[in-house]
């Protein structure tokens, strides 16, 4: 039976700009907002948009991501005719192994896509924070009789040079694509959201591979090729909240923003929930010595210190007389007694020993990496 649409979430990014936080996990698996991981937003958008066939393309450090997603049950994707499927690189008869780019990742998974027999393929990045009804962009794609529709978001023109920019005519048809232009002609930035007619994209990828030219990346190769060949390509303008959390500063900023209970992500909470695979933890413990102000404290936390405008993920421990302000403490981190944490991100399973200071500034966020230790006696062999 032919499916109308399936989604392919590209979740194999190393996230080098997140540095120590992605030393052992892929960027889409990085925790966010106290109880989520970044990829939860793309998965939840699929579920809420009634797209229940989802392929998740992984590559770098996939273990945490694989365990988190499972078969998609936490997002209600494990239906009889749907589900979430983890797609990892493998050696094939023609020597392909590692994904060389976004388009190459789709090419190497042609057999999976063909097995779902879709009319349209929705390609998503797994590392953005937003809520979006994908059925709206699909309706737009059909209305325009487009071969490719790109989700775009208006950005301040002075920031447009940081993005891939779509220049369009009055009807929304893309007439030019510029990758991080020095002098942008418009402010329509690509969101990394694409809808393709599968039969057309498949033909391009297969024919290109036969010529050994390789269309490796959607932004650098596929979109320009579509435009050169006169394929009808349109921009779908999205005006809601969208955040690329690919840097330490943007990740910290996005977490601080969701502490505002009037944040746009909460406006449709009843009808457009963000789901996650959340381990069962005991209730939080706030001791008589603790003080908590304007913060999120998640299940399993033990707090004996003072917390201001911060997010504590699951099973975080904060010792007596410690002070945490304007910071993100990720799951299973331990902060000892008499510590000071300000303008910081403390990674998963990290330890801040008694009396240690981790202090950054709003313009230079301090980071303790996944599983790292700050302060206290050093182990044998440490310098």
UniProtKB/TrEMBL annotation:
Primary enzyme class: transferase
Catalytic reactions of this protein: alpha-D-glucose 1-phosphate + ATP + H(+) = ADP-alpha-D-glucose + diphosphate
Domain of life assignment: Bacteria
Taxonomic source organism: Facklamia lactis
Enzyme Commission number(s) from the entry: 2.7.7.27
Name of the coding gene: glgC
Binding-site residues for alpha-D-glucose 1-phosphate, renumbered to this chain: 164, 179-180, 190
Cross-referenced CDD domains: ADP_Glucose_PP, LbH_G1P_AT_C
Role played: Involved in the biosynthesis of ADP-glucose, a building block required for the elongation reactions to produce glycogen. Catalyzes the reaction between ATP and alpha-D-glucose 1-phosphate (G1P) to produce pyrophosphate and ADP-Glc.
UniProtKB keywords: ATP-binding, Carbohydrate metabolism, Glycogen biosynthesis, Glycogen metabolism, Nucleotide-binding, Nucleotidyltransferase, Transferase
Family, per entry: Belongs to the bacterial/plant glucose-1-phosphate adenylyltransferase family.
Assembly and binders: Homotetramer.
Family annotation (Gene3D superfamilies): Hexapeptide repeat proteins, Spore Coat Polysaccharide Biosynthesis Protein SpsA, Chain A
Protein name: Glucose-1-phosphate adenylyltransferase
Keyword Translocase in record: no
Domain Glucose-1-phosphate adenylyltransferase/Bifunctional protein GlmU-like C-terminal hexapeptide: 289-360
